[in-house]
Amino acid sequence: MKTIVIIGGIILTGATVIAVLMDQRNEAANPPVSTQGIPALPNQAAENPRVNPAHGQPGHRCDLAVGAPLVNADGTPVPAANPQNIQSAPALPAPVPAGLKVNPPHGQPGHRCDIQVGAPF
């Protein structure tokens, strides 16, 4: 019985030593990654960007050029350039067939200004 306990202790000790060595080896092979000096992606943290983001990005306005300011110097939103040309999307007469994408509303991810809102593409 003593022999079994001694052998079990040796195996347990060996397994512990191997686990510690493997952890040290992994830490040496994969040093911590620093994000210092890496610029943040544009509009990643901002829900309300101050400049018009690219087409298809959240907050994009088709009536303004990409990169144009969305907020005046006094902090008020820039009014629509041609409000009479902005139309709401008509209701689709029939459901879109499976597998086709539809153009989401202005400012939503994936929106394309060259295609009418709600139209399949």
Summarize this, please?
23% of the residues lie in helices and 0% in strands.
Global Rg: 29 Å
Mean pLDDT: 76
Low-pLDDT regions: none
Gap between N and C termini: 76 Å
Largest sheet, in brief, is: none
- In terms of DSSP E residues, the strand content is under 5%
Tell me, briefly, the overall form. Answer: elongated
Query: How many strands?
Result: 0
The secondary-structure class comes to: mainly alpha
Helix content: 10-25%
User: Helix tally?
Assistant: 1
Can you give a write-up of this model?
This protein is 23% helix and 0% strand. It is mostly helical. The model has no long low-confidence stretch (mean pLDDT 76). It is elongated, with a radius of gyration of 29 Å. Among the domains are: 1-29; 51-79 and 101-113, no CATH class. It has one helix at residues 2-29.
